[in-house]
Amino acid sequence: IVVFGETGAGKSSLINLMAGKDVADTFCGIEACTTCWKEYPIDIDGESFKVFDTVGLDEPQPGIPQFFDAVENAYSLIQNLERQGGIDLLVFCMPAGRLKAMHQRNYRLFRYFLCDKTVPIVLAITNLEREQNMESWWTRNQKTFRKKNISVDGYACIAAIEHYPSLQEKSRDAIRKVVKNVTADGQKRAWKGGNDLFMSSMPHAGNGSPRTRKMVSRLTKRCHMSPEVARQLADRISRIKKVVVEGAT
Question: pTM for the complete prediction?
Answer without folding.
Answer: 0.85
